[in-house]
């Protein structure tokens, strides 16, 4: 028999977030210092808009920090500073290209436009943190998110607002403003995939036939994967956008693996996309042209082809080579020789002026950002939050791989942009929304519960029972404690002899590591009648 100590209420002291404040100062020094270096490198003086640029960044960082202190005090303290640093580096490079001029497609107001989109992005992220009290609310709108995502993907195909730019029909023009709807569709699809998979993961995890040592899923469960595969190929064929096609399909396969923990889904997904891509390359000339540029960029007939030549890719490769290990320094390179060096090929611009060492430092920042997102997914208590946070973290990492992989010829070149760094209002705004969601989920994951946790009961109660297995805990006035070895939950209600009350029944889950809970925290999840009906 074991006696459980009386319940002690957890500390309600709010974190001071001093670590985040210190990291934000460092991030601002990196971003503002980079912009100052651009001015001295190009004209031996600070840029004309340096003061305004710096003040805007400082106000945005301080404002976001204050919002988190008020509305999400337990949110991860590393995510915001890393994103501010990446955004600041991107603004510095875009400003450098705008000041230095470019031979192809570089309007002089690039930096001011990107700064405006940065303001909108930070405000949007703060809005998500302020208005979204609980990320689980989004689960109710899973299928609404699916419809929104499909509409956003189809919008560029409409004849009135759709625009074909550089061979890809992925833009819409609304009130004179060009937007890329697919950037927002990825968030909608992440919400839908999380809601769908958390409901159907047990079915999708069932084992089917075993082929070549690989345990395959049942054939009847392949339907969702086939549908997403067909949709991604449709984007590739009709919108001529390899990047978005890879992004959507990779997101679904990754979240499917997170939900089922079956590698067979990954193997099947990769095989299906590879087969579809080969067929598309054989049947459609624009896909074949991308493959030719990928495989033979230095061939004279491909290099000189207009449009669809490999000049941009070759210029980027030479820019990276010119940067070497330490780079030429801010303002000392020649990014103007590469078309769209401020957007699609900003990676080569950074590589030329910061060198391999600078690129590795930037990639480490991305690695930290993705790691904090995955840590949030591990720490959050509910399945929907785990899938959503894991999917959002993966989509940033996957987008970065697709961009860098295309520039370095690991995969064919795509039209995606580096998150937070490359010029592009749609991409910047969408990725700041992703940051807002991750901050909200991390706050809910780290926020201490006011309810008893594993090994604790209400002050007036004591319980005895097995010390192994999952231990349900009763909560509420007049409650009785039901402890049953091997069970994952207990129904909580009025105890025998307590006055009859119309109280909602609650289920308290206290997860042991062997039950799939967080072994570090012993996370406790409270599910009321309303949420239990939705499970």
From TrEMBL:
One of its GO terms (molecular function) is lipid-linked peptidoglycan transporter activity. This is FtsW/RodA/SpoVE family cell cycle protein. The keyword Secreted does not apply. The keyword Flavoprotein does not apply. It holds the Pfam family FTSW_RODA_SPOVE. Residues 458-471 have a biased composition (Polar residues). The chain crosses the membrane at residues 21-38, 50-68, 80-103, 115-132, 144-162, 182-199, 219-238, 244-260, 267-287, 354-374, 386-408, 420-439. Residues 447-474, 488-535 are annotated as: Disordered. GO terms for biological process: cell division; regulation of cell shape. It is a multi-pass membrane protein. GO terms for cellular component: cell division site; plasma membrane.
